[in-house]
Specification:
By secondary structure, this protein is an alpha+beta fold. Helices cover 22% and strands 27% of the residues. The chain has two domains: 16-224 and 279-324, Gcn5-related N-acetyltransferase (GNAT) (Aminopeptidase); 229-277, no CATH class. The protein is globular. It starts with a strand and ends in a 6-residue tail after the last strand. Residues 1-36 and 316-330 have low confidence and may be disordered.
Length: 330
């Protein structure tokens, strides 16, 4: 059965990331000890739960993986995945429970219990790990994988295998995937709420035949009170009044920022808005990066650069936990 690591209503005294940060670190380290790779992750309304892989129980006869329209895939992912966001997607797949009726606005064929999305990475250069393939035409990123907590252990491996098999028929030959090991905390009126403990991508490196390519570059993230990240591209849209800036502004206003005045330039308003909502500056040490080839003759395709042993447990440094920003984040 599911073993949740989230206890509703848990709070810790002190600053938003003071003693809470120590508690979060302890729980994160529990997931990163030898043997922690025996867990697989599930989601339900943005709350993580974990299953032991040894429990098994997944019934392939009761499930199927099919390509589904983007709209229901997006609704499902935004509702359940911790990021509450949807990337630019080329192929969306649904894991359906065929012995249960579909829910409202879900595709026919069974209840939607998971979504896998192959899409466009924020930086297409990450697809250069496949020197023989044309980025975006023959290689994509596994942008989202979100399974409900009702899906038994090892369901993600089964779903990935079938999604990749179909993607290969569409000309896709290479997939990259990233695993974010850094935890996320959402700030609420009742105090910090634990959103994601971080993970090392065990399903990729030890369950799906991906090659491990190390960590992406370290960077500084602006984490909003709802635990989502305001990425550099979104901030640039506001500063330069580019297409899409209005959606970013609405997102910040919903979190408590005052509306932008008619004469106010984007740079000045963004600085003020981030100060009003209260952001956390997070030093991110980089995501774990994986890649694999799929389809016919996949063993003939090359991967650029060296491959490394896939991690079986990680490390987290206390000083790299999020720090509440009391000033302006740019």
């Amino acid at each position: 059965m599911c073993e949740p690591l989230e206890t509703p209503g848990r709070t810790r005294p002190g600053g938003p990331y003071g003693e809470w940060g120590d508690f979060l670190l302890a729980e994160q380290l529990e997931l990163q000890q030898p043997g922690s790779n025996a867990w697989c992750q599930r989601w339900n309304h943005r709350l993580p739960t974990w299953r032991r892989t040894r429990d098994g129980g997944f019934d392939p006869e009761a499930h199927r993986v099919v390509r589904i329209p983007e709209a229901p895939a997006k609704r499902f992912t935004v509702a359940h995945h911790y990021s509450a966001s949807w990337p630019v997607v080329r192929l969306a797949y649904g894991l359906q429970r065929v012995d249960q009726p579909p829910g409202p606005d879900e595709p026919e064929g069974g209840r939607l219990v998971g979504v896998l999305a192959l899409g466009v990475p924020m930086n297409t250069a990450v697809l250069n790990v496949f020197p023989d393939l044309t980025p975006l035409k023959e290689s994509l990123e596994l942008s989202r994988m979100c399974l409900l907590d009702s899906v038994a252990s090892n369901g993600e491996s089964w779903a990935c295998a079938r999604a990749f098999q179909d993607a290969a028929t569409k000309g896709i030959r290479g997939i990259v995937a990233h695993a974010d090991p850094v935890p996320r905390v959402r700030i609420t009126a009742d105090g910090p709420s634990y959103v994601m403990p971080g993970h090392i991508g065990h399903v990729y490196g030890h369950g799906q035949g991906f090659a491990y390519l190390g960590r992406t570059r370290a960077r500084r993230l602006v984490v909003l009170p709802d635990a989502t990240v305001l990425n550099d591209r979104a901030a640039a849209k506001v500063r330069r009044d580019e297409t899409g800036h209005a959606a970013v502004e609405r997102r910040l206003i919903a979190l408590g920022a005052t509306a932008r005045r008619a004469e106010e330039d984007g740079t000045r308003w963004l600085a003020r808005a981030l100060d009003e909502v209260g952001t956390a500056a997070l030093h991110h040490g980089g995501c774990h990066k994986y890649a694999r080839t799929i389809g016919p003759h996949r063993t003939r395709l090359r991967l650029a650069g060296p491959t490394l042993p896939a991690p079986r447990h990680g490390s987290l440094h206390p000083h790299r936990l999020p720090q509440r920003n009391e000033g302006t984040t740019r």
